[in-house]
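Case study.
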Amino acid sequence: MTSDTPLLQLKGINKSFGAVHVLHDVDLSVWSGQVTALVGDNGAGKSTLIKGVAGIYSFDSGEYYFEGRAASVSDPKDANALGIEVVYQDLALCDNLDVVHNMFLGREETRFATLDEIEMEKRATDTLKSLSVRTLKSVRQQVSSLSGGQRQTVAIARAVLWNSKMVILDEPTAALGVAQTEQVLNLVRRLADSGLGVILISHNMNDVMQVADNVACLYLGRMAAQVRIADVNHSSIVELITTGRSGEIGIQADDVMAGGVA
Amino acid sequence: MSAHQTTDVDIPEAGDRGGIGRAVGDYFTRVKGGDVGSLPAVLGLIVLFLLFTALKPETFFSFFNFANLLNQSAAIIVLAMGLVFVLLLGEIDLSAGFTAGTSAAVLAVALSSWGMAWPVALVIGLLTGTVIGLFIGVLVARLGIPSFVVTLAMFLALQGVMLLIIGEGGTIRLRSDVLLAIMNQNMPLWAGWLMWAVLVLGYALVSWRAISGRRKAGLKATATSVWLAKSLSLAVMMGVLVYVLNQQRQIVRPGKESCPAVGDAPIGCIPVIEGVPWAVLVVIVLVVGLTFVLGRTSFGRHVYSVGGNAEASRRAGINVKRIRIYCFMIGSTLAAVAGVLLASRDNSVSPTTGGAQTLLFAVGAAVIGGTSLFGGKGRVLDAVIGGLVIAVIANGLPLITQQSGIQFVVTGLVLLVAASVDAISRKRSGSG
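After joint prediction, the assembly is written out as follows.
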């Protein structure tokens, strides 16, 4: 892969919920300017890993480096302060507010204790422009009137509004039609091209092959492999997801035996 | 971007939005899209007003009744304003009526038994409401008990508290000329016009500053013609209101004369009653202040967001529980203000103050005005429009029929119609 220091580097992450050991010695690296796809079957630990990165859970053990420095993230605000933003699958938008209000929700710009609508609208418009979003009629549209793809766009734009360095996208295309999926994938690619580190959680191998630079595959709470997308194909990723190995890459049988009973 | 997207409109478009024609067109588009807002209430108000005027021209359509109607609606309107905050969260406060009564009782006791000066007693009365709201809010937000249950319990408990304070069947006189003046005295004529000028100029200036600020920033702004039309219609509407209220309301019959403003009054003269009731000023100040809080502050924005999507608000770092508690505190404090108005109107506090249909009228006022029962949609002004609708019904129906049964049925049906409009418009806008 690249020789640069990764933007985000996790080493030997472990996380248990009571007796259930969800993550076993997981390593993950995310580089600026690249899309890292995070794949794995349901229950493989993708959500737990992401929520740990975002500060919603804290990891039991392991090292967390951001921009090469050790970071301690135990609260979503810590992650935001580092420049990490998460776009959840349900988008977390308020239907009854407009696009600008949603993008600044909880972090409104104020002047003399009153909302600075002009500043917020300008920044929201600039951000959408920088992402080449041309599918919104007005930034003062209520979110309830937007299509699924437009909502996804607003949620992603909100994530990059804060000079963020890394954006985590949780299945952004899961509920979208063909044209809208295409739009959102283009947007994901542009995020990375503009220098952000992107983690893309997806169940859709076409999406992964189309936009990802590298793919990290979780299998039963272990990182089966993190490989460049050029080194794998559609079926080998599916193999990694379902069995944890594919030829030379992935968890070898004896590894599983060694740590299987945790 | 791919070719098929080139037809999409680019986001920033220089220049203003279209003129009046465009603004009216946009409004109808919104209404068709399910966002009816206060439109049904305003239409209803006009229809009811014309109906009662046609049926009872001499009694309903008189200067005296007009002022009387505003006085009748003031307490309901203020109570409804408080409920708007609670309804915006998708919650309900069934105890608001008795919160009003209890606060008024505490106020009356503070004035008469404890002999306090009226400003101190007023603060204690209002704080009573705030504390009740804090209690309800903590139970709802922290313990997660549905507000319906908490406030139903408070509905009963506060009735009991009122009885304990006032004593069975008793009444406490409101011993404060200042507080009695709110519902029984009128502003001097010049003060009414001063209020008109401040309101109209204030609105015109503030909205113009917003427009010019947006233009300077290169953002779309309301067209000057639309701004002018809005400012002028506010000036005309408020002007008519002040003008009508500044007329002598007592009917001077032939052979009798009006009492002189100063000096000894001849026996049998007709007293002069003219001027804007002080209660109207109270309502206007509250509308302006609370509209500012809801529309222009982060807190207000968070109230809407929590009502629209509490989970999204929580993830955005908003302290959802605190917002909930504050809203119940604001609601109950406004209920206490309504209690002061009720006590001022009756000159006293009795165990029925804030009881009977007071609460249902207030909920009806908020909902009829266009505040959604599902949360996230509503304005303080809705409470005023809805409150006027309720007051016109409550005032006009008894002139037509003496049967209170019909009055209850009609008021109930109006509330049901308003709730149906709310539910249907919610379905239309696709957020249901």
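Observations recorded in class. The interface with chain A takes residues 1-2, 4-5, 8-12, 33, 210, 213-214, 217-220, 292, 296-298, 301-302, 304-305, 307-309, 311-313, 315-318, 376-377, 429-431 of chain B (CB under 8 Å). The longest helix of chain B spans residues 189-216. We will return to this complex in the next lecture.
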